[in-house]
Specification:
This protein is an all-alpha fold and 83 residues long. The protein is built from one helix and no strands. It has one helix at 31-82.
Length: 83
């Protein structure tokens, strides 16, 4: 399978691929590449934010499960103590 110049953020192919105006270090002045890079950065930040919020949510779920397990254990110990 041939490499199509796609990046990891699934923004699309890099505008540098098959560019007629390409020269060494042209990323500094290329407007097409700047727009492409802004889109990649925007998606990366959105993914990072979503990942952080899901991590916080999973931590709170873990704490809730732990609390429920602790409560259930204490009920079991109380029942055994009453015998």
């Amino acid at each position: 399978m041939a490499y199509l110049g796609w990046n990891r953020s699934n923004v699309g192919p890099c505008p540098c691929k098959d560019c007629e105006e390409r020269y060494p270090a042209c990323h500094d002045q290329c407007g097409k590449f700047r727009e492409f890079r802004k889109e990649i950065d925007r998606k990366r930040i959105a993914e990072q934010t979503a990942r952080e919020s899901s991590d916080i949510l999973s931590e709170s779920k873990k704490r809730a499960i732990w609390r429920k397990q602790r409560y259930n254990r204490s009920k079991t110990f109380r029942r055994l103590a009453d015998r």
